[in-house]
Design brief:
Blueprint: H1 3-7, H2 14-33, E1 36-37, E2 46-49, E3 52-55, E4 62-63, H3 93-109, H4 121-129, H5 141-149
Antiparallel strand pairs: 1-4, 2-3
Length: 165
């Protein structure tokens, strides 16, 4: 099944969305390590096989070219495409981070971040991903995965023992 089909039923829990996003970050680390950018991360381009999320459809992918200041073709899906995909700069790994932020929000709320932002811990992660300026986003899929894996420390509560009362 595609993630798109699964999300038609109902949004996911933040924990499940984070688990899938971490898997996708692993795929992006490999892709970005090859110097490529996917440029079209969205629910219909993710297949779920049991506990595995698989990124598909590399038609919009391109090799990052450091000597260029912008891309020559506009590629990607409206709503998921980062601002630089519209000729405002060159796409790089941070372009896929933008789409991951939109995807995370859609997985949890069923809506684009411009309509409704996720609550709780994911909100800050999503807000970092979808920054208009690429240099304000997570610098890599590895950094995004680390943020998703980071557990919040809960304050320890010291309960008095019955004999202390």
């Amino acid at each position: 099944d595609s993630l798109e089909a699964l999300l038609k039923g109902c949004p996911m829990t933040p924990k499940e969305a984070a688990r899938i996003a971490v898997q996708l970050c692993g795929a992006l680390e490999v892709l970005h390590g090859l110097g490529a950018v996917h440029r079209d991360i969205k629910p219909s381009n993710i297949i779920l096989r049991e506990d595995q999320a698989v990124l598909i459809d590399f038609d919009a992918a391109r090799i990052h070219k450091e000597d260029q200041s912008s891309d020559t073709r506009v590629m990607g899906t409206t709503g998921y495409a980062a601002p630089e995909q519209y000729g405002f700069g060159q796409t790089d790994a941070r372009t896929d981070i933008y789409a991951m932020g939109v995807l995370l929000n859609v997985m949890v709320t069923g809506k684009h971040p411009s309509q409704e932002l996720a609550e709780g811990r994911l909100r800050q992660i999503i807000e970092t991903c979808i920054q208009v300026h690429a240099d304000r986003r997570y610098p890599s899929a590895e950094a995004l995965a680390a943020a998703l894996k980071k557990k919040r420390r809960r304050p320890s509560v010291n309960y008095m023992k019955r004999q202390d009362i």
